[in-house]
Structures are given as C-alpha cells and as structure tokens.
Amino acid sequence: MTGISLVIVGGAVVFALRLRHPLKRMRERATMDPLTGLANRSELMRRGGHLVAGARSRGDRIMVTMLDLDGFKGINDEHGHDAGDRVLIGVAMALRSAIREGDVVARLGGDEFVTVQVLRRRADAVTVAERVRSDVERDLQTRVAVAASVGVTMGVAEALDGETDLKALVTRADTALIHGKQRAKGHVYDGNSCPTEHVSPSD
C-alpha cells in the first residue's frame, strides 16, 4: 500500500470514529427521556414489545405497571420546576434499582412511569408491584428532601395466556391506576380484576 493510500485509509478511519459518537448520541436522544435518561414512549414499545414476545416464546409471565406520583403538582407549585425535576430524577433512579436487569422502565411524560417486567415462576404480580411501589416511595421520600410528602400509586396488568399486545397491557394498567386513585392514593390496583378493586395489602 502506498503512502497516499495509507493517508486516505487513516483519514477515513478517523472520520468514521468522529462520526460514530455523534450518531450514537443522536440514537440515544431519539430513544431516551432527556430528563431522567429512561426509555421514552417509542423505546418502551420497541423494547417492551420484544420483552413480551420473548417471554411468550419462553413460557415466561409478563407484568406491566403504570406509576403515578401523588402530590407532585404541589412540589412544582411550592418549590418550582427545578425541584419537580429532582423528584422525577429520583423516581427514575429508584425504579432502576427496584426492577431486575433486562426489564424495561420508561417515562411517558409528566409524572407517569411504566415498567415491563418478567415475573418469576411463582411470583404474584400484585405482590411484586407493591414491593416496587413501596421501594420507590420510600427511596424517594428518603433521598429527595422536597419529596417527603410525595406518594406513589400504581396500576398493574399481567399478560393473559398468549397475550402479546403491550399497548393493551399499558392501557389496562393505566385504567386500573386512574380508577384506583379515585378511591384512595398510595396503593396498587389490579387491572386483571375489577379496575376499581383495591388490592394493596398496605391498608
């Protein structure tokens, strides 16, 4: 290879390396919530959809939770949006710690978060959801000073036999959450039973 050829090849390699990092950042921005670093809605549907489909092929069980913060508006009103952002970041960190590697956690916007989780063979979806809910609430109230009065309410939906429609699971969990919050905040509500049924063991 001639000296000129080496220079051309070397220049191409340098250009490719320089281009790779901006492209990686662009891909991350397209799939990530910019505040929390969690998956955004489109990435939730992509990764979560793969998780649901893979679980079905392996015979695993899947649950989806929809999480909403109680008292979050008061944080923004009293302490400002910077404080609200700290609360949302705190929730994201707590959720990452509360779920297993390979599961999916996303922020849909505002104070709405979603998880897609593979259930262990004998695990109960509502029990797992309550553990996540209480862990996130405790971690948030402990680590973020302005969040001492912020609570967490959650709706949960477990995939039925053969069910692979992630959007339907998210909708079912969200419906349970909405109806549940009309009764009492700070609990888990089961989207696989009556959406208004109060199922949390923490009464």
User: From the 3D coordinates, which CATH architecture of the largest domain would you assign?
Assistant: 2-Layer Sandwich
Sheet with the most strands, sense and barrel status = 5 strands, mixed
Protein structure class:
alpha+beta
CATH topology of the largest domain, by name, is Alpha-Beta Plaits
N- to C-terminal separation? Answer: 77 Å
The ordered string of helix (H) and strand (E) elements is: HHEHHEEHEHE
Q: Please state the oligomeric state of the protein chains shown.
A: single chain
Fourth CATH level, the homologous superfamily of the largest domain:
Reverse transcriptase/Diguanylate cyclase domain
Discrete helix count: 6
- Helix fraction by DSSP (H/I, runs of at least 4): 40-55%
Mean of residue pLDDT values: 86
Number of domains: 2
What is the CATH top level name of the largest domain?
Alpha Beta
Number of strands: 5
Low-pLDDT stretches are 195-203
What Rg do the Cα atoms give?
21 Å
Short structural summary:
It is built from 6 helices and 5 strands.
Overview of this protein structure:
This protein has 203 residues and is of the alpha+beta class. The protein has two domains: 1-31; 34-190, Alpha-Beta Plaits, CATH 3.30.70. Helix content is 54%, strand content 17%. It has helices spanning 3-31, 41-58, 72-79, 81-98, 125-143, 166-183, and strands spanning 61-70, 104-109, 112-119, 151-158, 188-190. Strands 2-3-1-4-5 form a five-stranded mixed sheet. Strand 2 and strand 3 (112-119) form a beta hairpin. Helix 3 runs antiparallel to helix 4 (81-98) and helix 4 packs across helix 5 (125-143). Mean pLDDT is 86; it is low at 195-203. This is GGDEF domain-containing protein.
